[in-house]
Amino acid sequence: MKTSLPTLGLRAGLAAVLVPSVVFAGVTDFGGAKIRLHVQGSAAPPGAPVFYLGGAEVIANPGDATTVTVNGLSLPEQDPGEFWDDVSFPTQASLDAVFPVGSTLAIQVQGGALGTLNDTLQLPSVENYPPAPALTAATMTALQNYDPAQSLLLQWNSGGAFTNTVFAAVDAVSNGSEGPEFEDPTGTATSLLIPAGTLSPNTQYEIILDFGNLTFPTGSPAPGFGVGAQGLVGIVSETLINFQTGGGIDAFCFGDGSGATCPCSLFGAAGAGCANTGGPGATMTGSGTPSFSNDTLSFSITGVPGNKPGLLLRGNNQVSVLAGDGILCIAGGSQSSQVQVTIAGSTVFTDFSGGGFGSVANPSAPTNFQFWYRDPQNSCSGAGFNFTNGVSVVYSP
Known about the structure:
3 helices, 2 domains, six-stranded antiparallel beta sheet, Immunoglobulin-like
């Protein structure tokens, strides 16, 4: 449920409390708010608002109403039984000119099973806006190429004395699907934990943080909306943060001295496997989108000796075991591709269906890959083979 603007707008402020509360014919929830909209794009807190919003919402059971107006302006039915909209203004003064401080919002519902009902909301006579919500610098850093296979702790500043409601949500930008949501009616919360596996790889998300200074009246007796209708009115400071999850592709298990000691202490370059005939060792990187529905995942192996047999290995577990002239990084349900002949300097693999490869055994867990290759020259162990680093992949639907 989104507004026509690139933001939740009023929806975010209302969503914390506007939950249908009755099942008989009638208005269940109604609200109005003035919103200062901020955008945070770095570790620094957001600056001045980029928009000022005024909006309203009425929720009734589907079919109970056909027309809703606020101060004579029509609210579109965005979803069955849900009428809402918000309007953006360039300045606080232009917002206040349309929605004056302390003014009344006259709401009328018509049609359907309700006939005509009228009720009002009173905007605050003194507008004490909460501070702009801001994610901490550590959280903004954690969002950079965030791997959704891991949990994520969102942390933000305190709402201060003028905040009595905190709302946070994480929604997908591409299709508008709603993700984790959190509400705190005390206004004191400063964090939200996103469990591992909640978000999808390679997906653009928007975080919505709201600090609300709100009151919650009930509806008036008939011909008002009735005391069973839950109201919300006040002012909100909202901040939007956009981020892109990582592709679910992460390198691990290096022969560069950062982990296990390579055989004969022949370390490779940073991020590579152990040293080989070519010197700095071989590196495997993944690119594309690992997906069950539209998979474009591919691997590029650089630094391998040319015209040598090799195998792409796949396993469920990550290990670090010395083997041959390198480090074996995967185990557990291990499978291998058909034999591949390396190309000097660089080898690319895009088809993992050959040989012993079958479907991914556990789609919700990381799948681990590594390339094994023959390297008989300059073999300190005499085994004549070596490995790249490992690459961990999380597949999306």
